[in-house]
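FW: tagging you since you asked about this chain on Friday. Here's the raw sequence from the shared folder, copied in full. Didn't touch anything.
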Amino acid sequence: MIVWLLSCFLIDHKPFGKAYGHYQVNKLELIKNLKDECQISKIEAAAIVDLFFDKISDALAEGDRVEIRGLCSFFVKEYES
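HL: got it, structure written out here
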C-alpha cells in the first residue's frame, strides 16, 4: 500500500515548474486516489496518509534522514541565523 501511495506522486500529478519537470499532488487527492484504488473508506485512507507523513515528520524531528529509495530523501538542514 505504501508503494501505491508513493506512486501517486508520479502517476496522478499536475505539472508545475516546467523547466524542472516537477509534479505536485495535494493530500486530498492522495486520500481520494488511495480510497478508490484500494476500495477502502475515506477515513481509512486519510488515516494511512496521515500515518505515513507523521512517521516521516517524527523521524525528521529526531534528526534522522528519511530516504525513499528511487524517489526522494528528506533531511533537516540547519542554517545560521
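FW: The helical segments are 2-11, 27-38, 42-61.
HL: agreed, and The first strand starts at residue 14 and ends at 16.
FW: great, closing this out.
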